[in-house]
Amino acid sequence: MGKDSKLILDPLADNNPITIQVLGICSALAITAELEASIVMSISVLFVLGVGNVVISLMRNIIPSKIRIIVQLIVVATLVIIVDLVLKAFAYELSKTLSVFVGLIITNCIIMGRFEAFALGNGPWRSFLDGIGNALGYGVILIIVGFFRELLGSGTLLGFPVLGDPIEKTGLYALGYENNGFMLLSPMALIVVGIIIWVQRSRNKALIED
Asked: How would you summarize the oligomeric state and partners of this protein (predicted)?
């Protein structure tokens, strides 16, 4: 496997930023009760991290070491403001659902970590691939968690009923199935992430810490 392809593929599995590095987990708990919000947050982080890594890489030789964190925060804050304005312009209701969590992308440990660990020491192309890879790894977990929380908690996906009508008792509800409201609470997100971590480590024993 080439070095460039590993930058994309490693964060999707054996070096996932959430399940392996345990970074950016707060948003996985907060906004994954709905699949749509999970997808939009994933796309937002994909844009911010991909573009941000390139910008920091291009500036890496002119950023004074003493103020590099401030510069990084300015870059990510600018990109987050762009995301927030786009959401308010084209998906206002969803922007209200995500509300403060879009702003908190600024302090997402994954983004600042990749700026520091990779973009400051590598060229724009590799930094772009690293940003895309880590954002995809983050997004995959958010989407998996959002899928199961919305499906089992509300019986819907992207707002559309897929298990039947709980009021009219059609579909699975006619067989006695009931939505699990606990899935919509933040603690269940942590449990779902924990199950993903367990499955991942059971498939790859090398990931189990001593």
From this structure: Composed of six subunits; NqrA, NqrB, NqrC, NqrD, NqrE and NqrF.
CA distance to 35, 53, 77, 108, per residue, from 114 (Å)? 26, 7, 15, 10
pLDDT 10s digit of each residue in the chain, 210 long? Answer: 567 788 888 888 778 888 887 777 776 777 788 888 889 888 989 999 999 999 999 999 998 888 989 999 999 999 988 988 988 888 888 787 777 777 777 767 788 888 888 888 889 999 999 999 999 999 999 999 999 999 999 999 988 999 888 888 888 888 888 888 888 888 888 899 889 888 888 887 776 666
Q: Report the candidate in 157, 162, 135, 161 with the shortest Cα–Cα distance to residue 146.
A: 157
Pull the structure tokens for residue 209. Answer: 């810490």
Give the Å distances, CA to CA, from 17 to 74, 145, 176.
23, 15, 39
Alpha carbon 86 to chain centroid, angstroms:
18
Instruction: Say how many CA atoms lie within 13 Å of 3 toward its Cβ.
Output: 4
Amino acid at the residue 79 = L
Q: Please identify which residue in the block is written with the tokens 């880590």.
A: 134
